[in-house]
Amino acid sequence: MEKIIINGDTTLKGEVAISSAKNSVLPIIAACILCAEECVIEGAPMLEDVFVICSVLQDLGCIVEINNVNNTISINSKNIINKEPNIELVRKMRASFLIMGPMLARFGSFKLSMPGGCNIGNRPIDLHLKGLKALGAKVDTEHGFVLVEGNKLTGCKINLDFPSVGATENIMMAAVFAEGTTIIQNAAEEPEIIDLANFLSSMGAKIFGAGTGSITIHGVTTLHKSVYKPIFDRIEAGTYMACAGITKSKFKLIGVNEEHLRPIISKLTECGMIIESNGEEMIVDGRECYKPVDIKTLPYPGFPTDMQAQMMSLLSMSHGTSVITETVFENRFMQVPELTRMGANIKIDGRVAIIDGVKKLTGCEVKATDLRAGAALVIAGLAATGITTINDVYHIDRGYMNIEKKLKALGADIKRIKI
Ligand code: EPZ
Per-residue pLDDT for 353 more than 90? Predict the structure, then answer.
């Protein structure tokens, strides 16, 4: 087990390089199943979740080479032989379910363990399965498994009851070889959806409208190899921006896309942060970042749920009362008891959190309960007086590459210890 120890109340300075987006790279790796030639992902983030999905593909029979020196991953899915991947492996990470669509599209049948829920919610897959059924697949769920069969999928119109990111991705990948045209309506519009569509198109898929609520896929017969560099991680960038706000620091982010950060920039500007972007670089100045704000998480282009916990840490030291409404997941306030231990004043009423800003947070022993709640504790620890010890940091490592190295380079007094 590992812990992160922060001696807080430090100012940050310098620059931090943002990695590629975890939530782009995971579906892109899954999409490599559709191609019987070698694909190379450049600038891939070396993250626990990335290693897990690579292991799942290796279990299927793919040849996967991870180079953590130049951050590339090469995947050759020519010889997939296993159609029932190891349950323990698949259940390590819910996003493994993203292999369902590509395996169905390429092989016409597949059996996969149901992903199950996680700390932030039940995480159902009904919209995924609705889409696969609409394409003509026979879908059975029994004994904790999903079995799909459909040798010749047929394009159709699919309307999603909710703009689910994963369902949009799975259906898009399943439709790539379908006969005719598929239109996904009320599709997710996240930048990671556009990135997946761009990767599929780079392999020869015919996809239009990604990033809007209506995505059109014209079926093709085969896909060819590709070398692709995913987009930057807007949530990692937002996390470091929140670090600037809570420590009243000014520093540079390298590797950002201002368009993808718009809802986060808007809220942090409301808080008093000064943000100047120039191409892929951004100067964030949190020295006057004191104002309370109200936040409601929504599907993109609304404020991202993946930034909710991080903003709660920042607002726990604002000069006033803020209200956060979490509309996407049913249990995404797991950071509250831990922030309360540090002195935050937060009340929860269902999906609403009321944050009364306090003058001081104090360091103490806390534990990460999920990826973004863990990031929120790092943010709070940077501003807290004294030592904050964060346990169960494996949650944080799922989505943040070298978080303590990046913060140490910005001047934080932070270290990781093995126990
Ligand atoms: C993706 O999860 C991200 N994960 C999540 O990031 C992110 O929080 C989420 O999208 C929302 O933006 C990856 O991309 C790997 P959803 P996903 O399907 O696809 C309901 C992180 O911290 N729903 O858009 O699972 C569901 O219950 C992670 O990086 C159904 O009802 O999210 C939830 O309330 C956490 N039926 C809502 O939709 C379904 O079939 C959003 O889920 C599918 C989803």
Answer: yes
